[in-house]
Prior knowledge:
The chain has helices spanning 7-27, 29-33, 36-56, 59-82, 88-101, 120-130, 136-142, 147-160, 178-191, 202-219, 222-242, 247-272, 281-296. The chain is mainly α. Helix 1 (7-27) crosses helix 4 and helix 12 packs across helix 13. The radius of gyration is 26 Å and the shape is globular.
Amino acid sequence: MQTMHTREEQMQAFGRLLDVLDQLREKCPWDRKQTNESLRPNTIEETYELCDALARGDRHDTMKELGDVMMHLCFYARIAQEQGDFDIYDVLRQQADKLIFRHPHIYPQSQVGQDCPKTLEELAASAEQSGNTGNSETAAFSSAKTAEQVLQNWEQIKLKEKDGNKTVLGGVPAALPSLIKAYRIQDKARNVGFDWQKREDVWDKVREELDELEAELKREDKEASTNELGDFLFSVINAARLYKLNPDNALERTNNKFISRFNYIEQHSIRAGKPLTEMTLEEMDELWNEAKRAMKS
């Protein structure tokens, strides 16, 4: 295991990244011409590459891709600095304030905008002096003991932020992939109490939506079938959430599993000198099951 670095070393490394980025922005023709608009597609690509490394559990690639994403974040801050809007200090300071404000069970609200206490003893003393208990709502937020309570408080607190979300679902990015967006919508609704009382009850809804989908498919009504397919998928995602399963991770596992098994069939066809288009479905099914057995062993 690699030796971890001190906070001072970490800050020096971060400063070095900012210094390198400053020099590239001034001296490199490519870096100098970049704008928010030109960087955005690359940022999306880098984010997906990071997600891929995380899904594969590849620690080296995760470290590398984190660096690429971090460089992009610093680049946007550098561009904003040049335009006189804000700089990396403002970004980091605001993020720290937001985290402190959203975690009243850890930080007294007097710490917003201030340097954080360095020790648990200082933190406890600061909380005692802050007088948070004088407000019943703040006291309720401060008493969160479980992850579930923290999440429920989180949504309520965000609605109280000056520049925060104005509605419960307002914080769900419109550009999220649909599967992840559905999960986030349901999760946010749950945090304010809009959820099934018993998770087992969701299966009646899943079966209801499946029946409605099958009925529309039999009528061959494409528009209605599309709507019902969406309702069915939404209900399945809901069921996954209730059972604490991540549907995006689950689907990615299945994608990778399908790719591996199909590649097995394709490689066999190449070795046999018989194109896939000339193989029968029965032949491909036999190889598919062979690949399943090989991967289980």
